[in-house]
Automatic annotation (TrEMBL):
This is DNA ligase (ATP). It comes from Rhizobium viscosum. The chain holds residues 536 to 838 of 838 of the full protein. It comes from the Bacteria.
Amino acid sequence: VVREMEQTTAKNLPKSAVQLTHPDRIYWPDEGVTKEGLANYYAQVWRLMAPYVVNRPLALLRLPDGISGHQRFFQKHAWKGMNDHIDEITDPKDKGGEKLLRITDFDGLVALVQSAVLEIHPWGTTTNNWEKPDMVTMDLDPGEDVPWENVIAAAYELKERIEGEGLAAFVKTSGGKGLHVVTPLEPKAGWEDVKGFAKWLADSMSQDDPERYLATATKAKRSGKIFIDYLRNGRGNTAVAAYSARARPGAAVSMPLEWSELTTEIGPAYFTVDNTPARLDALSKDPWDGFFAAAKPLQKRKR
Ligand code: ATP
Ligand code: MN
Ligand code: MN
């Protein structure tokens, strides 16, 4: 683990063959984060991030003129002039359909930066095993007036329920307004079962504490409740990747945390492109150390 962390230090950053054109192009004006700044951020996090973005179908949020520009495309398919380091792949369930996108290495990630991809949203599966997801993402979406402590409490509540099913739970900030609780799975169960499990978690949370939790998106806004968004877990659905930047003011990122770090000291957009290198330097190990080693098969059970 120590060796793994040393590899993230400046001495040993990955290099890319992909040429950045206009490296000074501004992506986040208020923070002054440029194309080159974003590429440098990804070089710092690459070794921790790679398992969550490599060899997965991707949906990409592209903002060619940065977050203040007018163009904003949520893309699942190739675009004109797309760099060769971004793969086009055929969905085995849609062989005649438009191809999907994947990256396989750091060059692919830099190619995304070059194309003004400011958010990366993978499927919860790898292309080695399309029909068998390897993670469940529970997305905690607080209504406008929900105190942050309650969002933290909801994450712990989910953790307990997930662990009660014999599975592991990891937490990350969304980089937006909430938290994501992520469970690694051995890729054994299919999409229906995995989404069913996620829905069961959300339903049981809201049934046991309907004052705090909602399992349906309708009326989630301004309800004062937390929507337990389980809908990231169907085939073709996505959630923002661990370590992905967010195309919102602040240049926040979705940051994996150790559970002990989940306090009121930090908020959902606390970690950013700017402050992450200092965070990595201060860490003694990967905050999601052992994520894939903790994967267990989803048990079939009556729900
Ligand atoms: P927050 O904490 O603000 O809820 P989030 O990442 O959980 O942040 P959103 O960015 O609102 O939530 O996105 C919700 C989900 O919908 C994401 O996981 C994403 O993969 C997907 N998504 C985002 N934008 C689009 C879009 N334009 N079309 C389809 N799906 C989208
Ligand atoms: Mn959310
Ligand atoms: Mn959501």
